[in-house]
Amino acid sequence: MAVAIRLARHGTKKTPFYRVVVTDARMPRNGRHIENIGTFDPQGDLKVDGARLEYWQSKGAQPSHTLDRLLKQQKRAAAKS
Fold it and tell me: Considering the entire predicted model, what is its pTM?
């Protein structure tokens, strides 16, 4: 089973809110997921449980391109502070 770490869209029309989820790569975007490990609000910031993210990556889960970009931006912002 290929495991992916990606964003699942929630919220209302024109005001999206995303959850960072660990899911089977074959599932649809908002389908069943294994674990919810964080949130992303485009108007706010990205909040991810770092320990769970590391755990799933050690098990072979791959983050989506968008999530990978957001994590790198967050890491750069933390380094500047």
Answer: 0.88
